[in-house]
Amino acid sequence: MSRELDTTDLRIIEAVRANLKASQTVIARQLKVARGTVYARLERLEREGVITGYTPIIDPARAGYGVLAFTTLEIKQGSHDKTIEGLRSIPEIVEIHTITGEGDLLCRIVAQSNDHLHEVIQLVTGVPTVLRSQSQLALATSQTNDIVDLLVDA
User: Quick check: pTM over 0.85?
Assistant: First the structure.
């Protein structure tokens, strides 16, 4: 289900993101709306799958994972689900996307060092349905946005 988010929804989402520990009462006071409004809106947004969880934002480098790579995988035809299942067992793969163009899957991988990245890529290419991989190292990250930034700035 896809729905438009109104200004109140966006203000509540932004307030929650700004302080995950804030109570609904604090958010209501900050936004000058009833606590019941905050409660009902968050409950609906969760139920509809707009909000899928609450989590702190972690800086990978400060958490010991300073190497970021994007790896494109070419996989055996018809093996999408089996390949994804195999890749999910590798915790350093933080995102897997099915893509068009060159390759079939794009993985975002974090590692502690280049040697560690090499070990992770060996695990990736050890998945029997992976035929070929190509990796690019990110030298610097100039911008990271969340979908909330897009929604609030729209």
Answer: no
